[in-house]
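Protein modeling request. Please complete all fields; requests missing the sequence field cannot be processed.
Requester role: graduate student
Desired output: 3D structure, token encoding
Chains: 1
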Amino acid sequence: MTPATFDFDVVRGSAGPTQGLTLNLRTKNLDNELVPMLFDDVRLSIYDKTVDKADRELLVRATFVDGGIQETDSYQGQVSWIPTTEETRALKIGAKNHYELEVRTGTDEIIYLLGVITGIGGLNDDESDLAS
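Delivered output (132 residues):
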């Protein structure tokens, strides 16, 4: 299976469902019909795209098992990455964040989706009590 590609933007320092990624995991059955894909885990790995592969830096990892990826509609096979402020803040400014979304079932591991996340902004201040 060739992974699909999808590039999107994330506002650094923001959190919530409007900043993440939601998709329906689909595969074809024996009758060639699209059906929800079964999975044990779904992993989103985001790396700094500007660093050589040997030295690449993992910026964010979210999984179904650790709660970073959530099943938002089991009937549709829908999963979502709803990022935290810390996760979006970890992204590099610009089109420098390469990601892969991997679906794991038993011993099978399939790269389902990949692309580039463009980090936007990030100048907002997360400190709640700043001294004057």
